[in-house]
Automatic annotation (TrEMBL):
Protein location: Secreted
Family to which the UniProt record says this protein belongs: Belongs to the plant self-incompatibility (S1) protein family.
One of the record's GO cellular component terms: extracellular region
Source organism of the structure: Solanum lycopersicum (Tomato)
Keywords, comma-separated and alphabetical: Secreted, Self-incompatibility, Signal
InterPro entries per record: Self-incomp_S1
Predominant subcellular localization, coarse grouping: secreted
Entry superkingdom: Eukaryota
Protein name from the UniProt record: S-protein homolog
């Protein structure tokens, strides 16, 4: 009798966990693709581009890009629950540098949801984030001299 009770409890727990996995944010558990976009939001910089260089936590080097006004650099990231994928990008504009995490799985699975699009608009006063290119939120400052 005791073994039957334990078996039913374990079976109930397994069913409960499977229900949670299927209901609560499936992106947390299964492999998903996220699209990261970096957009040059500087104004009047036609003679000096924004230089972007990104590398992943797995040492995948995406190379450098020189972005003119409104140009975009984008790539896709395959992410899973078991791996905290990160992309560090270094920006250079007019001899000033700033690095930031363009993608960090633990941070971005919630805020990139449901579109799985992560947009960064780099402007004179800082880095702005959006998941729909409509509503932008300033994440941190970058004040140029």
């Amino acid at each position: 009798m005791g073994r039957c009770v334990i078996l039913f409890i374990m079976l109930g727990l397994a069913c409960y966990l499977m229900t949670l996995i299927s209901i609560i944010q499936p992106d947390d558990y299964f492999e998903k693709i996220y699209n990261i976009h970096i957009i040059n939001g500087f104004t009047n910089n036609s003679s000096v581009p924004l230089v972007v260089w990104c590398i992943s936590s797995d040492n995948v080097d995406l190379g450098g890009r020189a972005l003119q006004e409104r140009d975009e650099f984008s790539w896709s990231v395959k992410s899973t629950f078991w791996k905290n994928t990160k992309f560090l990008c270094t920006m250079k504009f007019d001899n000033q540098r700033r690095s930031f995490q363009a993608f960090q799985r633990r941070r971005d699975i919630q805020r990139c949801y449901p579109t799985r699009e992560c947009f960064w608009l780099v402007k004179e006063d800082g880095f702005y984030y959006s998941n729909d290119e409509i509503y932008w939120r300033k994440d941190f400052n970058w004040t140029l001299n």
